[in-house]
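Please fill in the sequence for the structure shown.

STRUCTURE ENCODING:
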């Protein structure tokens, strides 16, 4: 099987109701999709993470200008070789950010090709599945203009609980005192039952994050995600020693090289590589192996269309509990519930929650079919 073409699709649409997180306002949902075709008629799909404020055109340019010429005529089964060649080519100008995002999309598409050609889900090609379903947690709770907080967040939490969610994550990072009031208010409003996490998107200094951690220590918070800058590993280590709340980070780190120090220095309790950002299946399974060697749990970051969601489920299936035990602590699925006009339509609504769990697709490749009409509808030239 030989790669004959690599196409990119930028999908983008304005939101009817913009929302905010600690870094700013999100007015559009966008993504960059990679389509790899082969001489045997097999097509694979991958996705590049597009943060709320990230132009998807950057990753598209990387694929078209740098990666595509390297891939045409190659055997997609050489995934590890191709990954290292892509990284080596772009190392001088893109060790982090949109360049590994782009490599991730290509790598996911290559594995999707291999799975479809073999008639097997990607998780089986990677060595097998530790689980066939996973508990999701609802990501949402972005700020919307004209609403009241924490009252509207409590109402949103109750909607998620009504759908069957038993865990959810609040967006924070709007000021120390505001966050403390907000977190405690939501916990009081929903009671002690639901698992509650918080995510500041690296809004704070160590001192400010410490004040929040001390104030919410009794609120039963499961983890505090990205309280401080991803460059401040020592800051994470300092905070980790001060609290019983788990610290989590990793969505802004890339490749086994980037994660090496986080793991070896035990900077966080939970690692959060994003499959569509940190290097795709090829690299994330190496990150997983490093984490397993230090008994560090992985709960992947997921903020994608249906393609990235499906691929992330395949990756989650392969994650061993850290450590493996009779009653292991299982990974969770980040299941974005914020406004996304083409998330489900792109995959014909193939991934849904039932009885509080999400099934991991067992069909070939990443386990979903792609709706080309949706690609045409939302494509940006």
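FILLED IN BY: designer on duty
SEQUENCE:
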């Amino acid at each position: 099987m030989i790669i004959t073409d690599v196409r990119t699709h930028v999908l983008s649409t304005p939101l009817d109701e913009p929302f905010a997180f600690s870094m700013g306002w999100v007015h559009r949902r966008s993504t960059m999709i990679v389509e790899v075709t082969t001489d045997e008629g097999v097509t694979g799909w991958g996705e590049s993470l597009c943060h709320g404020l990230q132009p998807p055109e950057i990753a598209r340019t990387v694929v078209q200008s740098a990666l595509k010429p390297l891939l045409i005529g190659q055997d997609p089964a050489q995934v590890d070789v191709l990954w290292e060649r892509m990284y080596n080519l772009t190392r001088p100008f893109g060790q982090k950010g949109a360049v590994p995002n782009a490599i991730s999309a290509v790598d996911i598409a290559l594995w999707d090709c291999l799975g479809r050609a073999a008639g097997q889900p990607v998780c089986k090609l990677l060595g097998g599945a530790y689980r066939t379903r996973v508990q999701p947690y609802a990501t949402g709770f972005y700020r919307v203009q004209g609403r009241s907080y924490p009252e509207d967040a409590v109402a949103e939490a109750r909607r998620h609980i009504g759908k069957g969610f038993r865990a959810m994550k609040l967006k924070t990072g709007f000021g120390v005192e505001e966050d403390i009031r907000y977190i405690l208010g939501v916990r009081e409003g929903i009671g002690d039952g639901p698992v509650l996490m918080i995510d500041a998107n690296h809004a704070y200094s160590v001192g400010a994050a410490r004040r929040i951690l001390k104030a919410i220590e009794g609120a039963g918070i499961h983890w505090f995600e990205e309280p401080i800058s991803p460059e401040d590993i020592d800051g994470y280590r300092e905070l980790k020693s001060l609290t019983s709340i788990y610290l989590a980070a990793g969505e802004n780190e890339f490749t086994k090289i980037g994660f090496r120090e986080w793991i070896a220095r035990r900077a966080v309790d939970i690692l959060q590589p994003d499959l569509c950002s940190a290097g795709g299946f090829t690299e994330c399974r190496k990150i997983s192996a490093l984490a397993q060697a230090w008994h560090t749990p992985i709960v992947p970051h997921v903020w994608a269309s249906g393609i990235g969601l499906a691929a992330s489920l395949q990756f989650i299936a392969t994650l061993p509990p850290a450590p493996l035990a009779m009653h292991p602590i299982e990974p969770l699925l980040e299941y974005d519930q914020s406004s996304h006009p083409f998330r489900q339509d792109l995959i014909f609504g193939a991934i849904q929650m039932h009885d509080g769990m999400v099934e991991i697709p067992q069909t070939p490749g990443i386990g979903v079919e792609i709706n080309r009409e949706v690609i045409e509808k939302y494509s940006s030239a």
